[in-house]
């Protein structure tokens, strides 16, 4: 008989022991395992072109133009439908990507190593809010910015990091939680602390100072810059708990805009998917719920390891961005203790007397209590080419957890 | 009959309307009104050399050596006792200084203008924690750092500011309160946000990049860097409410390490002083209450205008630095509403549902309720030459408020 409690303790202990550190910045093609010149990675569980949502299609159109594989939208759609491009889940390549999560071969990516377990994780760099590839926009400005990120930002950060040395991302997350971030939809502190740490390296780098100044202006102009680095750290943490025999702990949650998928430690690589839910949120002026795509993105890797929506009590000011009251934010965090295995030993919430965040979702507890994980998230327009229209709160479909529990019972012969 | 309520509304409205903006960085001798080559400004109400506390004497010894007016400690003491040096309160020169607050002619200072009322305020730059002039230390390292601040840091910030343009300090304070600072003893967010804003200017400046990198490293290494800029902003705000006929609102609180002094809007320049109190605090390893000097410094200008100790509910993590529990921090803020005139319209506390901070101390309410303003503060060693030994909480002496109320009754013929 499998000892589930013991397996879960081992699994969640791996989350707690993880030490994700930024060790480099590289080109996706060079550093992401299994990447090819014609591979496009995307957020969430695997999905075929014909089933992809508008924003994911939009981001892929943009990526094909950015890579020079297509000249325009029509060519890009033709190529994407041709079968010539390999689409795959970021998660199958130790990677994550926010919203559409589209990661193409030329993009610069953060390389985060989990120093405790030796595994690595990757995430591309954040473009800013509004019209951005990850929300499905692919206008000229979007492509131009991606080129600048490839040619200036990526190399600048790479050289700066080599000067200042590896950066302990978990430490930045821990500090950011003391400063009103929850490290998913509020990243102002994390972005500030990252910039402070890498700044001397940027200044000492060999880049022309106009470029260095632009890098500072770009990061200063985007309070979400830290998100993608934080996500890579969460992914490096999450993957360390994969494949613990007998564990019912979730180690992946992800959405591709069509499906929500979870993976469970004791069930290896298998995805449990169901249609992605609608988001309850605040919309930018001129947009409303009828414009919204269902839930999309890998950024829910934050909640998977105990921050983001699970740490909203640390970030009261986030309600101005995702809706609700401060009391709601505290209640969301409190309710997550019902479905998790432990309190985090590093991620802490000042207003709950420095209590550790609820960490390690147990699919059994989700089914028993009927409480679903709380996720805060950006909202993409449902049509390709438009971009972000708001931000809000969402849950995974219960079916993912139900199917996973049935599969777990079968796998381990539990009646 | 004077209309006290109306006068107080006018006084506190001036606090609320104030828009303190960083407009320049200059040399104290050049920019502070009434500064001379032989003037040394200090924190708190005026005090003569013979009555000065250890840390204030230590800081003055250091300043005289730094200015080249003395070669060593003995010469400095001789000069300080000779009557040749003009000692005066920072507050008499539109200035403030943390702890000893010693400001000498060659020091670079922030120049903050209150855009609403046109008045200016000044504060020197923060040296960091531990062995620092403002805590009474004057070793070789302290003097060397002051020289570097004069020769590199000040000019670098001055040029950078001229490139990025004026910086709205109130806006930085408002954001910092959303990020777990209370802008007195926790300034990690404020320091980060200031650095983000000035960074492109530093990079574009004409300084050698080694110097620019050192400036980034210095500010990144000192989470209190923002304090002195914030204090100048508070002083610019506070002074705008001076001299409102009939107002019982406090517009200055300050300590020189011997005396605590307050000034009241309707009573003009007059100080009401009493012996400074002992601080209840956390000590650095190797130090204890027997080492502590009584309360010292102008940083209580923060509490005077509604932040610092009055905003501790915004900064739960500060209890790790000054002692107490998170609940205490919230209670301190809550109790300050009892002795203040209004809720701030800009400084807000996320955890109290974005309620404005308690703003504008009314001496009548202090006497009626018996509740004294709460101040959080650093602790200096009582002997010259040692430096900071801890941080904690303190109140002003009740006598300041009692004497002020008696004087108010006399001034306005109230029985």
Question: What descriptors fit this protein?
Answer:
homodimer, 415 residues, v583 fold, 2 domains, 5-stranded mixed β-sheet, 4-stranded antiparallel β-sheet
Oligomeric category: homodimer
Name the helicity range of chain A.
Answer: 25-40%
Main sheet strand line-up of chain A: 4-6-5-1-7
Pick out the low-confidence regions of chain A.
none
Largest interface: A-B, 34 and 34 residues
Q: Determine the mean pLDDT of chain A.
A: 96
Give the N-to-C terminal Cα separation of chain A.
11 Å
Q: List the domain count of chain A as a whole number.
A: 2
Order of helices and strands of chain A: HEHEHHEEEEHEHHHHEEEEEHHHEEHEEH
Going by helix content, strand content and strand pairing, the class of chain A is alpha+beta
CATH topology of the largest domain in chain A: Enterococcus faecalis V583 fold
Q: State which percent range the strand residues of chain A make up.
A: 15-25%
Strand tally of chain A: 16
**Silhouette of chain A:** globular
Looking at CATH, the homologous superfamily of the largest domain in chain A is: Enterococcus faecalis V583 domain
Radius of gyration of chain A: 20 Å
CATH class of the largest domain in chain A: Alpha Beta
How can the largest sheet of chain A be summarized? 5 strands, mixed
Q: Tell me what the CATH architecture of the largest domain in chain A is.
A: Alpha-Beta Complex
Describe the structure.
Two copies of one chain form a homodimer. In chain A, strands 4-6-5-1-7 form a five-stranded mixed sheet. Chain A has a four-stranded antiparallel sheet with strand order 10-9-8-12, sandwiched between helices. In chain A, helix 3 (54-66) packs across helix 4, helix 3 (54-66) packs across helix 5 (140-164) and helix 5 packs across helix 7 (188-204). The first copy, chain A, is an alpha+beta fold. The first copy, chain A, folds into two domains: 19-233, Enterococcus faecalis V583 fold, CATH 3.90.1710; 243-411, v583 domain like (v583 fold), CATH 3.90.1700. The mean pLDDT of chain A is 96. In chain A, a hairpin with a 5-residue loop joins strand 5 (108-114) and strand 6 (120-124). The radius of gyration of chain A is 20 Å and the shape is globular. The longest helix of chain A is centred in the middle third of the chain and has 25 residues, at 140-164. The first copy, chain A, has helices at residues 4-17, 28-31, 54-66, 73-81, 140-164, 169-177, 188-204, 209-220, 225-239, 301-304, 319-322, 326-336, 363-369, 398-411, and strands at 20-27, 39-42, 86-89, 95-96, 108-114, 120-124, 167-168, 250-256, 259-264, 272-275, 280-283, 296-297, 340-349, 355-361, 375-380, 388-394. The interface between A and B is medium-sized, with 34 and 34 residues.
């Amino acid at each position: 008989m499998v000892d589930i409690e013991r397996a879960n303790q081992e699994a969640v202990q791996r989350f707690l022991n993880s030490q994700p550190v930024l060790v480099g910045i590289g080109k996706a093609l060079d550093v992401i395992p299994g990447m090819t010149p014609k591979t496009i990675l995307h957020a969430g569980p695997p999905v075929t072109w014909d089933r992809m949502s508008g924003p994911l299609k939009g981001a892929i159109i943009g990526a094909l133009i950015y890579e020079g594989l297509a000249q325009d939208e029509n060519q890009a759609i033709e190529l994407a439908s041709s079968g010539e491009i390999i689409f795959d889940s970021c998660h199958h390549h130790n990677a994550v990507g926010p919203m559409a999560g589209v990661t193409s071969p030329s993009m610069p990516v953060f390389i985060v190593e989990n120093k405790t377990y030796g595994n690595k994780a990757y995430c591309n760099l954040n473009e800013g809010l509004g019209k951005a590839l990850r929300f499905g926009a692919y206008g000229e400005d979007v492509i131009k910015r991606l080129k600048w990120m490839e040619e200036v930002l990526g190399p600048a950060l790479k050289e700066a990091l080599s000067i200042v040395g590896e950066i302990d991302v978990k430490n930045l997350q821990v500090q950011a939680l003391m400063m009103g971030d929850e490290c998913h939809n509020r990243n102002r502190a994390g972005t500030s602390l990252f910039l402070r740490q890498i700044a001397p390296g940027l200044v000492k780098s060999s880049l022309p100072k106009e470029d260095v100044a632009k890098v500072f202006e770009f990061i200063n102009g985007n309070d979400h810059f830290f998100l993608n680095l934080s996500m890579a750290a969460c992914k490096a943490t999450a993957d360390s708990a994969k494949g613990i025999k007998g564990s019912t702990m979730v180690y992946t949650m992800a959405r591709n805009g069509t499906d929500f998928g979870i993976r469970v430690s004791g069930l290896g690589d298998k995805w449990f998917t169901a249609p992605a839910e609608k988001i309850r949120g605040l919309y930018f002026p001129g947009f409303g719920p009828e414009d919204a795509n269902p839930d999309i993105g890998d950024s829910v890797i934050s909640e998977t390891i105990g921050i983001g929506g699970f740490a909203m009590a640390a970030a009261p000011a986030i309600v101005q961005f995702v809706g609700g009251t401060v009391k709601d934010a505290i209640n969301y965090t409190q309710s997550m203790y019902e479905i998790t295995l432990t309190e985090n030993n590093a991620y802490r919430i000042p207003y709950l007397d420095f209590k550790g965040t609820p960490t390690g979702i147990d699919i059994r507890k989700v089914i028993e209590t009927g409480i679903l994980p709380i996720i805060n998230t950006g909202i993409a327009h449902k049509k390709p080419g438009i971009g972000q229209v708001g931000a809000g709160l969402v849950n995974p479909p219960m079916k993912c957890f139900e199917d996973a529990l049935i599969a777990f019972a079968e796998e381990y012969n539990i009646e």
